[in-house]
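Shipment paperwork, digital attachment
Item: protein structure file
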Amino acid sequence: TRPTPHGTLATTASIMADSRTGLELLLHAPDKETVLALMDDSFLCRETGWTVDHCRQVANQLNIPEGQPPPSIAALHASAALLIKEALYSNPKSTEEIDELFPSEFHPKLKGLLIKVLAARLGPWREQIVSSPFVTTPRLKDFDWVVNPTSTGILGVGAKDVTATIRLTVQQSRLNAAVIPDDVHVALEVDRETLGEMVDTFAGIRDQLAAMTTK
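Attachment content:
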């Protein structure tokens, strides 16, 4: 494996540190229960964010003076939501792996508390995502295809080996009723053998669905 340049590691560490800065406002929390409640709240609003009124309510919970600008509270939510998303995506198996989501210079006591919160809540959060009526899997909206008669495609095959490019338009997963996901466009290049395997597999799926609908 090619070693990673030191500058790249330093940049990555800096980005991680910046993305966690907003979490330091949790040091104003009067107790552990408030931190847990705000993390749960950040999970529920991870796609929509907090409104200005909600930010004021959070400021009151954290006993932050009224003169504190709302953007600083919004930064708390942004950092918390990003941490939650990264934890859900990486699916850590231990507290040691959760610890890797924090920069080395992060406040140790707050980090310990957040590790405990994530260890306790990742399972319920994941179950809530799966059971939500608003969560959908990606949907195929459209597709087309074109034959590539020469070796101009990404496979770099010879001119005798004709390939086809299949272009898919897919709507991304919907995670929140208030957010309409964007479409993504994916292009796949396949040779005749791979295409034959795909057709056979799809035919098997079609036959299984047909058998289930006739029962």
